Amino acid sequence: MRLHLLPLLAIAFAAGIALSGRWMLPPVPPAVAAVSAVLVVCAALRWAPRLTLLSLLALGLSGGAFWEALDRALHPNLLQPWVGKRVEVIGQVLEEPVERGFGRVCRVRVVQLRRVETETRVDARLLLRTSEKIRLAPGQQIYAAGILRPIRSSGNFGGFNYARYMAREHVHATLTARDAFVEILDPADPRCDRRLALGLRDRLAAVHLASLPPDEAALMNGIVFGSRATPVPDEIERDFRNAGVVHVLVASGAQIAVLIGIFLRLLGWAAAPRWASLLITLAGAWLYTLMAGGAPAMVRASITAGAFAVAQLLGRQSDPLSLLALAALVILGLSPGDLFDLGFQLSFAAVGGMILLGPRLRALLPARPEWLWAGIAYSLAAQLATAPLVAHAFCQIAPVGVLTNLIAIPAAGVLLGSGLAVSAIGLLWPAAAFFLDSANLALLWVLRQVIHACARVPGGHLWILPPGGITVVLLYAALLALAWLRREHLAFLGRSRLACASGIALVALLAGSRVLPSPPLLRVTFLDVGQGDSILVQTPTGRTLLVDGGGASGGRFDFGERVLMPALLHRGARAIDCVVATHPQSDHIGGLAAVCRELSVGMLIEPDVPSESAEMERLRSEVRRRSIRHLRAQAGVSWMLDPQTRVTLLHPPDPRLPGREDVNDHSVVVRVEYGRASFLLAGDISQDVEAHLLRSGAPLEASVLKVAHHGSRTSSSEAFLDAVRPQIAVVSAGEGNLFGHPATEVIRRLAARAALTCRTDQDGAVEVCTDGEVLDVRLGRHPGAPPWRLLAH
């Protein structure tokens, strides 16, 4: 195989960035190493040519490390002194706001910061969170006031480090501002290129909204402009995700590539000069990038696709792998932190997979028909190249996507071209757009039906245990070994390479499947779900109990899919034997519908409390659809989760307590016993219910207490805590919540009883492992720290 110098340099440069980012190196040592490497290269070119390649790779490695360290040093966290304080900021909106949960989020470049009588000029970036009522646009100068908080990462074990990711984007804090404290000081210049592009996009998208049914219009605009233009309904987006083709709804390099292909074909028919074709093609790609929001991922895609377009227009027989490496070097040179962006990784993995693996896989398939087998080969190559990253990041894979992409990508390409054309015509002649969109409507309907069917193919979409970092590296090593294999070497060498690739893949799979036997321990994890509750109980025999699945879903944010499912899979929970919904409030059941939809669930237990909330309706609908056993909670019910683990329900009684209108007072209270260790999960009960439990003689003494109602002052009475006598108390609350949880007096009561108090808002997820005698406590925000160890009473 021919040696490719530029890809090797790009890999070395990226490795240097990764090492520096991982170990937070200062700029000076990599700079010294880079200078030394330059001298070695010069010497090698003259006296030792064979060392030139190694010297260049050393230069790339040290240069990447220096560049990342320098970028980090030039963008320090200037907002740190004001974190946790109420501030007023004046800044400029950098991007189009996106929907997140119950509001909108955008990046703001801060130019002025005020606190009390102090005014400071700074140059920093923050995330601004506002309600959906606030309409911001790139380029606007705004005023906002609120409490400046650090960016919060997931506190669950194996969770995404969002704070580190945003720090690499030079964003170090977040500000949540209420409507009354947001003001637009200076509207963006209407001549601003991004403002003009977004305005044009909205006008073009409005043509389809007027001429197509709502769902089809949203789907069309999603394919043409990305989901930011018109939000795609959740059910349609879920079908596309489960079918492995959600990328067609996100403005990305795929749309840029199709658009460039359209430009090249049209300009070729028009016999336009080469220089004119180049300028028009690149200008069109840049305009589309701005219309799609101008996000960093789109800019990267434009640079990559533009490099290929320039090579084709110049008539060069360029090596596609070298062009891809050149694009990566340009992007990482402009922003080293992009290496850690999943979009960057997936884009280059997909294209690299098609370049390296596509021809190898095509050679193994039949010759005719060419279009079918070539499509399958290159689709499979892209799927294989991105699967380890997708599995690691999202805990899911979609094998059916290999076939679905054969339909979705050509259809999306046709819809992209026709959608842009109809939109342009509709600006001048709306009646013609209505007629022309009828053809698009037929194709959209067919596409929806095909995707809907593929999304429901058994085994076509799988939630899996996420592979670790080492496993991902081993899997990519196996893929590179497969790319190294040549069909003509069918003798010993070819078989040895295949054996090598298979061996690496086997080691990777074994490493990822966690085949090592675990000690006989009960593991209880109090998940970090923000202002909510979710407790996962896992027995030594593999049985599982999930008490609540807290967290509210809002807007287009599905808490169950985005937060709860990954958290459960990182804990190794592929099936749930029993789910207990303590009471029908969103902060306790908001994610349970997704659990019942995606995992195998044995039974659901809930209190007999009337509820018409949307979350409870979704949960019950999934329970009916999946034929999950459904039971009503009743005090006194007890069963063995496994031969050594007993679960007992202590509340609510039957009949229900009279005069209790507050749904919190009907919470299911769960007791789990394993040897001498016991866990009391108190739901959201109030002090009145605590008094009832004391009078009932229920076994309340426990080694570990899940503090009731997130540490509210209306719970955790002195008498109740004296009866429980917890050695460990866990408070599940959201950071900076508006309810003041946990209350100061509750924390004082726990401290007075010498209970080790852990808080999910500060410590992240809390894991308690026990063999029935000893309790080991680990925290999600400090996973590498040695555990606290206590003897269970």
Task: Describe what this molecule looks like in 3D.
This protein has 793 residues and is α+β, with helices and mostly antiparallel strands. Among the domains are: 5-74; 80-186, OB fold (Dihydrolipoamide Acetyltransferase, E2P), CATH 2.40.50; 469-512; 522-791, Ribonuclease Z/Hydroxyacylglutathione hydrolase-like (Metallo-beta-lactamase, Chain A). 48% of the residues lie in helices and 18% in strands. It is built from 26 helices and 25 strands. It has a nine-stranded mixed beta sheet with strand order 15-14-13-12-11-10-23-24-25, with helices on one face. The chain has a seven-stranded mixed beta sheet with strand order 16-17-18-19-20-21-22. A hairpin with a 2-residue loop joins strand 18 and strand 19. Helix 5 (193-211) crosses helix 16 (430-455), helix 12 runs antiparallel to helix 14 (370-394) and helix 15 packs antiparallel against helix 16 (430-455). The chain is globular. Mean pLDDT is 86; it is low at 489-495 and 513-517.
Put the structure in a nutshell.
The protein has 26 helices and 25 strands. It is α+β, with helices and mostly antiparallel strands.
In whole angstroms, the N-to-C terminal distance is 67 Å
Helix content: 40-55%
Detail the poorly predicted runs.
489-495, 513-517
The strands making up the biggest β-sheet line up spatially as: 15-14-13-12-11-10-23-24-25
- Global mean pLDDT: 86
Gross geometry: globular
Structural class: alpha+beta
Radius of gyration, in angstroms, nearest whole number = 29 Å
Oligomer: single chain
Largest sheet: 9 strands, mixed
CATH topology title of the domain at 522-791: Metallo-beta-lactamase, Chain A
Percent strand equals 15-25%
What is the CATH architecture assignment of the domain at 522-791?
A: 4-Layer Sandwich
Q: What is the number of strand segments?
A: 25
Any idea of the CATH class of the domain at 522-791?
A: Alpha Beta
Alpha plus pi helix count: 26
User: So, the CATH homologous superfamily of the domain at 522-791?
Assistant: Ribonuclease Z/Hydroxyacylglutathione hydrolase-like
